[in-house]
Target: Fructoselysine 3-epimerase
Amino acid sequence: MKLGLFTSGYQRNPLEDCFLDAKRFGYDYIELWGGRPHAFAPDLASGDIRGLNRLIEKYEMPVLGYTPEHNAYPYNFMIGSEAQREDAVNYLKLSLDMAKKMGADYMLVSPAHAGYLATYEEIWDRMTRTLRELTEYAEKVGVRLVVEPLTPYESNAFKSANDLLELFRRIDSPFLVGMCDVVPPFVQHESIMAYLEKLGGKMYHMHIIDGEQGTDSHIMPGEGSIPMPELFQELKDFGYEGTATLELVLGYINEPRLYARRAVRNVRAMMEQAGW
Model:
C-alpha cells in the first residue's frame, strides 16, 4: 500500500516544502490540494504548472492525485443557481486538464452540502447531472474521477458506501471510482471495511487518519479513537493494494513538517506490525 502526503496543511509554507518533506520522510507520492497559494487550477493553467512539474522531476516525487478545493467558497456544485453549478463544473473540468498535465492518476471530488431546503430528489438529480458531465470529461482527458463521501458535519448529500453504490448504478464508467476516508464511516457508526466489501473493484483510494466521535476532526494516526493497528491488519488481510493518503489538514497547519513526519512514522510502524 502506497502512502501519500496531503498538501493542504502546508498552505502557509512554500509548495517546495511538500516535495522535500515527502522525499525526506519516506512518502510514496503526493496528493496535491488545489487551492491558493499552491495549485489553484486557473493559476496552474496560467503558467504555474511548469514550476509544479519541475518540483515533481527534481524530487522524483509523483503527484498521483489532485484534489481541487471545491467544498466551500467559491465553488460547490451542490448548491446555488444553475449558473453557479455550471461555473463549478467548468472549474473542475479545467482541474481535470491540469491533473493530466501534472501526470496525476486521479482527481478527487466530494459532493458538499446542498443546503437545508434541498430534497433527496433535488440532491440526486443535481449530483447525477454534475458527475455524469465530469465523468464524460474525465474519460476524454484520461484521468480517473474519485468520489469521496463526507461526514454529516460537512455534507447532507453524499456520506456513505451506499451512496457510492447508488452513484455507480446511475453512472457506469471505468473512470468513475470510489474511496473511503475512514472518518466519515467511523463517526456515523458505519463499518470502514464494509466499503471494501461493497465497492469491490470500485474501491480505488483511501484517506487514512484518526478521528473522534462527535466531530469531523482529522487527528494524527494512532492518537484518536479509531483502532488503527487493527484497521491496518484488516486491510492487510483483505489484500487492499490501493493508495492511502495521510490526510492531515488544517488542525496541524502551524507545524505541518513535524506532524507529517510523525504521521508517516506512526503508520509505517503499524503497517510493519500488521505484516506489510
